[in-house]
Amino acid sequence: MSETTRGSGSRRPTFYQADVEDILSGRTADVYFERTVEILEQAGRNPVVRAEFAVKSLPDGFPWAVFAGLEEVFALLEGRDVSMRGMPEGTLIRPYEPVFELTGNYLTFAEYETAILGLICQSSGVATKAARTRHYAGDRTLVSFGARRMHPSVAPVIERAAFIGGCDGVSVIKSAELLGSDPTGTMPHALILIVGNTVEAVKLFDETIAPDVPRIALVDTFEDEKFEALNVAEALGERLNGIRLDTPGSRRGDFARIIEEVRWELDLRGYQHVQIIVSGGLDEDEVRRLRPIVDAFGVGTSIANAPTVDFSMDIVEIEGEPIAKRGKQSGAKEVWRNPVTLFDIVLPLGVQPDREGLTPMMGELMVDGQIVGELPSASQIRERVLEQLAIAGHEID
Hints:
- The protein is an alpha/beta fold and about 400 residues long.
- The protein has 2 domains: about 200 residues, nicotinate phosphoribosyltransferase; about 170 residues, Alpha-Beta Barrel (TIM Barrel), CATH 3.20.20.
- About 35% of the residues lie in helices and about 20% in strands.
- It is built from 15 helices and 18 strands.
- Helix 6 links the parallel strand 6 and strand 7.
- Helix 6 crosses helix 7, helix 6 crosses helix 15 and helix 8 crosses helix 9.
- The radius of gyration is 25 Å and the shape is globular.
């Protein structure tokens, strides 16, 4: 509706999102925390507490999750009079283990509980699903295509978590910029539909786009995938890096057989260099099934819409005295892990394990609002995940 036709009392549309200042000011808190702060301030009560963040159970019976979102927690708490002890981002975590804890006067962080949980629950869920998909993709390229399934304001959050979990690349420009990498993508059906011919669209792409961008042709818009693949291969020859199949489920039949047929025909005509990339509604089971016959996967909804990891925050100590609600173990704790097997045990802080080969997992992350050490890059966190996945990946199967 134009300004000339909009009624004088009409409400303008808006983006329904919180900005950074809303988060930092506590405006994204559940209202009962705001009321709790009001009550405690009125009563003059603000004890030093130790609050523990842990997972009681994991979605769909997962054996482990990937801890993600810590850097944004740092961004929320930096400069505030609170200390944090815990595991580094990218650690594989299990139920009933403290992942990190906050220590400080309760009112310092009371109104941030909602935000902290939101930051780590969603990111850990996405990173976990990406790691599981990475396991099934093996050495094949895995790209996050899921930003279009979420609100655009959180696209970088989703794709950072997907990258940390094991994706090799992300598709959104802003996400790649924040990760310090180049966005990954081929061409949409819209380009081919507007041009009216797959080969002509691919030629225009080749003539227009910088030569360092891989030439990957989408071959399922108008014709049979096999014939379109051969057409673009003949048109571009050695310049064609790959073809992408995004075939709708209603037209697939046996997707694996279609892919095998395309590969056969390309190889038979000397196009062994042309890679096959598949996308479109893939989940981890289909990735596992198709891995032997494809070179790369673009996975969207399955990763972006991953079930959240259900963290909770619980006070376990007040003014140095252990205390916890029903169903929770009070007091400060340490997680001890065998780095070779990733076997864990949880003990009261200060108690040594009675077996050898275990190392403590929880270190100082923040002291009086100051971050301890250097922040790792997303690539460094990703490497940590992949190293652990090499050990614990078999638990998925």
